[in-house]
Design a protein that fits this description.
Length: about 40
């Protein structure tokens, strides 16, 4: 039971961290006028 709860908690934390990272990437793309997203494509 505790293992399942730990997995749920860690996956939720990972999702929250991922969302913050995406926001940071979006801010960089705005700053660099989309040059990063152009390079990714």
């Amino acid at each position: 039971m505790t293992d399942v709860n730990a997995a749920k908690k860690s996956s939720a934390e990972a999702a929250g961290w991922s969302n913050r990272w995406k926001k940071a990437l979006n801010a960089f793309e705005i700053t660099f006028d989309g040059r990063l997203s152009a390079g990714r494509k």
